[in-house]
Specification:
heterodimer, A: about 290 residues, alpha+beta, five-stranded antiparallel β-sheet, B: Ubiquitin-like (UB roll), DNA polymerase, domain 1, 2 domains
Chain lengths: ~290, ~150
């Protein structure tokens, strides 16, 4: 593993300026995804070797969780460990907390960041379904401009995003939650920890006092290059009682998803797991409405 | 911009200043430049935990950390633990067989549980999730950690 040089700017402006002058630089935050990728034999083929490093670890302004302009804003270098224990996120972005608690090992959670996860855009990232159901937007800074787009538009495919050379992810923002809202994320792997999931699912639900679904978002991940928000299917459950939905979700999801698997398990099995996980995430989200409700 | 970089890092309580290559890992810097060989090179991908050290009190895979990234930080390796009670308990419980994983196990447990009260077996297993041991089956390691946690 080689690199031309290493720089650790202390502000976003400085980072963007470095990247403008060296568009081939690799941005490193926690390094927990990037370093193993650099060490793989195909790193050379993918053009990842012998490029400069720009580390974001010293950019303190990116290490913050706050409410900002009516959205919940998470700085791109906020670690999974911090997300797992943050009190704002515990009440308003529970699905993302579920993700953070279950990522890798304590050492990976202590340094791996939310920005790094989405910039790396692994097809197996746990964060995908959770960010989709929470309505995530990505705010990006470039030389002399800033832009934002939905997480769904930001992701192009496995290790492919809309992030161009010279751009830095500043924050991930989430839609604020209202009363009687719950969200959850679940995954299923062969091992309980340190494994790439067979499938993942996220759910966010708003229930009325009769437990009838007012709003619902369901998403699944690890079934292909991109996590999928099941908008049409979700809409069909609006007005349905939660306990009826739990019964019908597995079959509905199984029928709705197209699996483009990685061959580790049969596609049909992955589909079935997806359906069950979606129902589990939905159930957990509903339980949280009841326990957190007014 | 010069390629090599001077870093100033506190390792096991001692201030160290030395030059590193831009892509050099903390693991290489510790083992080759400083001769601290407790942290082991295992998988090189953050999966096995053999290279676990503490950076500013947090557990870290030294193989996934660039040496340049610990400039101005404080790093603790198993060498810096001196006579830690957990090390003694691991021996007494038979938690050390080939020993390759032990420096990483020590650092992972201490970094995660040192300041936690009422440690459960679940807490210990969560703390150890990133550390592979192919000898013991983990039981003696978990027992040692639980005794350490309850005797503090």
């Amino acid at each position: 593993m080689t690199a031309e040089w290493y720089a650790a700017p202390t502000s976003i402006a400085e980072a963007v300026d470095l990247l403008r002058r060296s568009p081939d630089a690799l941005i490193v935050a926690g390094g927990t995804d990037l370093m193993p990728r650099l060490r793989r034999p195909r790193a050379r083929v993918s053009g990842l070797t012998n490029r400069p490093f720009v580390s974001l670890r010293r950019v303190n302004s990116l290490d913050d969780v706050q409410f900002c302009r009516h959205r919940l804003s998470i700085g791109s270098v906020v670690t999974h460990a911090r997300i797992a224990t943050d009190s704002i996120l515990h009440s308003d972005a529970t699905a993302l907390v579920d993700v953070a608690v279950g990522i890798g090992s304590p050492a990976v959670r202590a340094w791996g960041t939310i920005g790094g996860t989405i910039a790396n855009a692994s097809r197996s990232m746990d964060a995908g379904p959770a960010l989709l159901v929470l309505g995530a937007e990505i705010e990006i800074v470039g030389a002399g401009y800033r832009r934002k787009e939905s997480f769904a538009d930001f992701l192009f495919g496995s290790h492919r995003t809309s992030l161009s050379a010279g751009e830095v992810i500043e924050t991930v923002t989430l839609r604020p939650t209202s009363l009687r809202t719950g969200s959850a994320f679940v995954k299923q792997g062969v091992r309980r920890v340190m494994d790439i999931a067979i499938a993942t699912a996220g759910a966010k639900v708003v229930l009325d006092h009769e437990n009838v679904i007012q709003q619902i978002e369901l998403a699944v991940g690890n079934i292909g290059p991109l996590p999928v928000l099941l908008s049409e299917l979700s809409d069909s459950f609006v007005g349905v009682r939660a306990e009826d939905a739990i019964r019908d979700i597995p079959r509905a999801v199984e029928n709705a998803v197209a699996v483009n698997g990685d061959g580790r398990v049969p596609d049909d099995y992955r589909k079935a797991v997806c359906g069950q996980l979606a129902a589990r995430a939905f159930k957990l989200a509903c339980d949280r409405v009841v326990t957190q409700g007014v | 911009m010069s390629s090599r970089q001077m870093i100033d890092v506190e390792v096991n309580g001692r201030s160290e200043e030395f030059e590193v290559e831009p892509a050099e890992t903390l693991l290489t810097a510790l083992r080759v430049r400083l001769g601290l060989t407790a942290a082991k090179q295992g998988c090189g991908a953050g999966q096995c935990g053999a290279c676990t050290v503490m950076i500013d009190g947090r557990p870290a895979a030294a193989c996934l950390t660039l040496a340049a990234q610990v400039d101005q930080a404080s790093v603790t390796t198993a060498e810096g633990l001196k006579n830690h009670p957990l090390a003694e308990l691991l021996l007494r419980h038979g938690g050390v067989q080939c020993g390759f994983c032990i420096p990483g196990v020590l650092m992972a447990l201490i970094a995660t549980l040192e300041s936690v009260a009422d440690v459960s077996e679940g807490d210990v297993r969560t703390a150890l999730a990133g550390n592979l041991c192919r000898c013991t089956g983990y039981r003696p390691i978990v027992d040692a950690a639980l005794e350490w946690a309850s005797s503090r």
